[in-house]
From TrEMBL:
Transmembrane residue ranges: none
Protein name stated in the entry: GNAT family N-acetyltransferase
Boundaries of every N-acetyltransferase domain copy: 6-173
Species per Swiss-Prot/TrEMBL record: Streptomyces olivaceus
Domain of life: Bacteria
UniProt cross-references to CDD domains, sorted A to Z: NAT_SF
Length: 178
C-alpha cells in the first residue's frame, strides 16, 4: 500500500474523555487476532493510566473521518525513569518522554503512517530522551525503531503477564533518521 494523506490531530490530558473510545477502537482492530490475551484485554486500563497523566500527549491520524492509528505517551517522573537501571551513568540531561503506544490499523500499515505518528508525537518535545518498550518477539519492529534512532538497552518485564520487553532509548537532540 502506498502512503495515504493522513490528517494528524493532537490531543492532551484534558481530551481523554473525547478520544478514549477512538483509542480503544483502533486497538481492537490492530489486535483483533490477539484479544484473547489477558494482557491485551487490559488496554483500557493503560489508556486511562497514561491519559490520567497531566503531561499526556497523543497524536491520532485520520483518513477522512476514519482513525487509522495513534501514538501517545507522557513525560517520565524525574529520577524514576525505568531505563536508568540499564545504564551505568545517566546522560547529563536525563529528561525523558515515555512513548507508551504506537498503533496503526492493519489497512494502513506499511504506508509510513507509523513513522509519521511517532515523529509528530516527539517533535518539539522539551525532553532530551524518548524511551519505549518493544516485544522482543517482534524483531522487525525493533529494527524499525533502531532505524528511527533508538538503541537497545536491556530488557524489562513491567507486569507478571507482560512480555519481557526490550528497553529502547533515543536521544531527541539528534535528528531522526529518514
Amino acid at each position: 500500500m502506498t502512503t495515504t494523506a493522513v490528517e494528524l490531530r493532537r490531543f492532551g490530558h484534558e481530551d481523554l474523555p473525547a478520544i478514549r473510545q477512538t483509542l480503544l477502537a483502533v486497538h481492537a482492530d490492530a489486535y483483533a487476532d490477539e484479544m484473547d490475551d489477558e494482557f491485551n484485554q487490559r488496554f483500557p486500563w493503560f489508556v486511562d493510566h497514561w491519559g490520567g497523566h497531566p503531561g499526556f500527549a497523543c497524536v491520532i491520524g485520520y483518513d477522512g473521518d476514519e482513525p487509522v492509528g495513534f501514538a501517545y505517551g507522557a513525560p517520565a517522573a524525574p529520577g524514576r525513569e525505568w531505563w536508568r537501571e540499564h545504564l551505568s551513568a545517566p546522560p547529563a540531561d536525563d529528561s525523558t518522554f515515555s512513548v507508551s503506544e504506537l498503533m496503526v490499523r492493519p489497512h494502513w500499515r506499511k504506508t509510513g503512517t507509523a513513522k509519521l505518528l511517532h515523529e509528530t508525537l516527539l517533535e518539539d518535545r522539551p525532553e532530551s530522551l524518548a524511551v519505549l518498550l518493544v516485544d522482543p518477539g517482534h524483531s522487525k519492529v525493533e529494527a524499525l525503531y533502531e532505524a528511527w534512532g533508538y538503541r537497545r538497552l536491556g530488557n524489562r518485564q513491567p507486569f507478571p503477564d507482560s512480555p519481557n520487553f526490550t528497553v529502547m532509548l533515543r536521544d531527541l537532540r539528534v535528528p531522526a533518521a529518514t
